Amino acid sequence: MTRGRTGAGRRPAGVVAAAAVAVSAVALLTGCSLRIEEASCGGGAYPVLAVNSSGSDCVPDGEEPADGWARYPEGKVPEKVGDTWDVYWSTRTLDENGDIVTIPEGR
């Protein structure tokens, strides 16, 4: 029996363990950059917001929003959960005239 030798294509257990520790450390240190971002709506749909209230929904492409819902103003559409526009619209909405307003208390 020969010690210190491994079969073809096999790595010593210490090397495998060290590699696993290194991969884990990298994942922990860069966790934020590896975060999976959730889209506001899936393919084939676009986001809309509740008029004079909080809330959002998705409407199939080619359809208009239902009464009480509106498209986001051009250039201010959230694309991912937590992105700049998603955060912006968490405290604002559109009124019945299409003006941007602060979300009324309790809505």
Overview of the molecule:
By secondary structure, this protein is an alpha+beta fold. The chain has 2 helices and 5 strands; from the N terminus they run αβββαββ. The chain has helices spanning 13-29, 84-89, and strands spanning 45-50, 56-60, 69-71, 92-94, 100-102. The strands form 2 sheets. Strands 2-1-3 form a 3-stranded antiparallel sheet, with no helix packed on it. A hairpin with a 5-residue loop joins β4 and β5 (100-102). The protein is extended, with a radius of gyration of 25 Å. The termini are far apart. The mean pLDDT is 80.
Q: Unreliable stretches, pLDDT < 50, 5 or more residues?
A: none
Secondary structure: number of strands:
5
Helix content: 10-25%
Categorize the overall geometry: extended
Q: By helix and strand content, what is the structural category? A: alpha+beta
Reported for the largest beta sheet, the result is:
3 strands, antiparallel
Order of helices and strands: HEEEHEE
How far is it from the N-terminal to the C-terminal residue, by CA?
Answer: 76 Å
Instruction: Give me the side-by-side strand order of the main sheet.
Output: 2-1-3
Strand content: 15-25%
Can you give the mean pLDDT? 80
The count of helical stretches stands at 2
Please tell me how large the radius of gyration is: 25 Å
